[in-house]
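User: Sequence recovery, please. Input:
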C-alpha cells in the first residue's frame, strides 16, 4: 500500500474571521473546525499518517480540539503558510511517506472520497501532484485599474484550487526547500503548494471535487456551514391529584378543585416536554438530572428543567424545531388556557410560539385519567443537531 501522511495546516491567524479564536478552533456545531477536518482524514483509509502544523501559542486550543484523538505532537509553524508547510514537511523526514496530502484546517467539509481520489491520481500516474478543485462556472472578466472591463477570459480550462493537494513527498520537500531560498516577492506569489511545485517544474493534475469543500473565512461561514440532522423524541409523565386549588400546566397556574402532587411543582406538561428534549440528544431523563430524592427540587417551578434540557441541546449546537404536547385529563378544561400555555412553553424553551403545539384529550371516563385521579402528558420534540 502507498503511504500517505496528511499534513493539516492550522497555523493561520485568520485576520478576516474576527472571532475570539482563530477560525480553525472555533466551534462548527459542537466541535472545533479543526476536529471536523481531522475526522474526515481519519475516515479516509488511504491516509496512513496525520500531522498538524499549529501556530506557537495555540497549544491549548489545539489540545482542546484534538482531545481523545491519538495524534503525534503538532509541528510549530512559521511566519507564513509556506514556511509552516516547509516545517511540517521537514518534520516528516524521519517517516518519509511516499505521498503527502497538504490540507487547510479551515476546510472541514472535505469528503474522504475526494481525498482518496487525489491520492489515487498521483499513486496511479506519472504526475508529481494532484489538487482538488472545481471548474469555474461564472464568466470571468478582467478589468483595468479603474474597474472597466478589458477582457472576458475564456473559462474552459480554469479551475478554483482547494485542498487537499497531494504530492510525492520527496519532490514536494525539495520544491519547498528551493522556494525558501527565493526572494520575498517571488515567494509571496506562490500562494499554494501546487504553485510551489509548478515553480520547480513538477507536474500537477487537477481532480474535480465539490463546491461543498469550501474554506471557512468568516463567522458567517461557520453559521451556514453546519450539516444538521433532525431528531425526534418522545416524553411521557403522569402526576396524581392531591387536595389543593390549582394545577401547574406548561408553566402556568390553572384554578382547579385539586393540585398535582409529586416532583417539584408537578407540572406534568413541562416534565414530559423536558424528557422529550433530553431524548433528542440521548441525555437520559429528568430524574437523572433532577433526582426526585433531592430535596432542593421540592416544590420548585419546573421551568428550570425544560430550560436545562434546551440548554444541553443548544450546547451541542442544536435547536428546537417544534414541541408538541398532548394533555390527557377529564378536568380542568385545557381549551381556555391553550394560548397562554403555548406562550409560556415557547418563552421557557426560547422559541417562537409558532413552534409550540398544545392539545388535550379525555379518555372517555376510562382509566385513571377518566376517574379523575391525575393528569397524563405526552410530548414530542423535534430538533436539529449537528450531524456527527
Ligand atoms: Mg413528573
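Assistant: Recovered sequence (388 residues):
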Amino acid at each position: 500500500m502507498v503511504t500517505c501522511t496528511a499534513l493539516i495546516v492550522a497555523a493561520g491567524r485568520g485576520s478576516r474571521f474576527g472571532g475570539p479564536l482563530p477560525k480553525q478552533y472555533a466551534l462548527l456545531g459542537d466541535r472545533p473546525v479543526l476536529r471536523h477536518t481531522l475526522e474526515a482524514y481519519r475516515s479516509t483509509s488511504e491516509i496512513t499518517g496525520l500531522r498538524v502544523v499549529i501556530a506557537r501559542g495555540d497549544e491549548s486550543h489545539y489540545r482542546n480540539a484534538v482531545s481523545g484523538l491519538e495524534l503525534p505532537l503538532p509541528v510549530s509553524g512559521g511566519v507564513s503558510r509556506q514556511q509552516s508547510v516547509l516545517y511540517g514537511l521537514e518534520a516528516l523526514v524521519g517517516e518519509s511517506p511516499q505521498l503527502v496530502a497538504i490540507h487547510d484546517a479551515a476546510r472541514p467539509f472535505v469528503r474522504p472520497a475526494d481525498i482518496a481520489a487525489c491520492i489515487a491520481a498521483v499513486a496511479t500516474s506519472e504526475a508529481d501532484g494532484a489538487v482538488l478543485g472545481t471548474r469555474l462556472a461564472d464568466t470571468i472578466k478582467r478589468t483595468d485599474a479603474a474597474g472597466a472591463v478589458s477582457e472576458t477570459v475564456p473559462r474552459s480550462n480554469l479551475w478554483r484550487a482547494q485542498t487537499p493537494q497531494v504530492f510525492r513527498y520527496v519532490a514536494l520537500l525539495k520544491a519547498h526547500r528551493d522556494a525558501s531560498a527565493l526572494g520575498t516577492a517571488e515567494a509571496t506569489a506562490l500562494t499554494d503548494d501546487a504553485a510551489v511545485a509548478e515553480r520547480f517544474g513538477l507536474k500537477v493534475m487537477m481532480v474535480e471535487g465539490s463546491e461543498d469543500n469550501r474554506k471557512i473565512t468568516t463567522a458567517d461561514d461557520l453559521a451556514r456551514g453546519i450539516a444538521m440532522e433532525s431528531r425526534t423524541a418522545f416524553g411521557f409523565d403522569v402526576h396524581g391529584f392531591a387536595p389543593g386549588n390549582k394545577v401547574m400546566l406548561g408553566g402556568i397556574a390553572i384554578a382547579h378543585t385539586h393540585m398535582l402532587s409529586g416532583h417539584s411543582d408537578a407540572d406534568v406538561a413541562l416534565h414530559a416536554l423536558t424528557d422529550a428534549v433530553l431524548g433528542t440528544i440521548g441525555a437520559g431523563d429528568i430524574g437523572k438530572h433532577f433526582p426526585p430524592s433531592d430535596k432542593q427540587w421540592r416544590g420548585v417551578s419546573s421551568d428550570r428543567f425544560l430550560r436545562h434540557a434546551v440548554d444541553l441541546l443548544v450546547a451541542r449546537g442544536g435547536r428546537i424545531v417544534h414541541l408538541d404536547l398532548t394533555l390527557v385529563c377529564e378536568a380542568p378544561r385545557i381549551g381556555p388556557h391553550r394560548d397562554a400555555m403555548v406562550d409560556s412553553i415557547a418563552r421557557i424553551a426560547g422559541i417562537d410560539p409558532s413552534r409550540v403545539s398544545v392539545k388535550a384529550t379525555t379518555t372517555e371516563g376510562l382509566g385513571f385519567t377518566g376517574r379523575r385521579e391525575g393528569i397524563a402528558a405526552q410530548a414530542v420534540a423535534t430538533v436539529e443537531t449537528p450531524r456527527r
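The longest helix spans residues 268-280.
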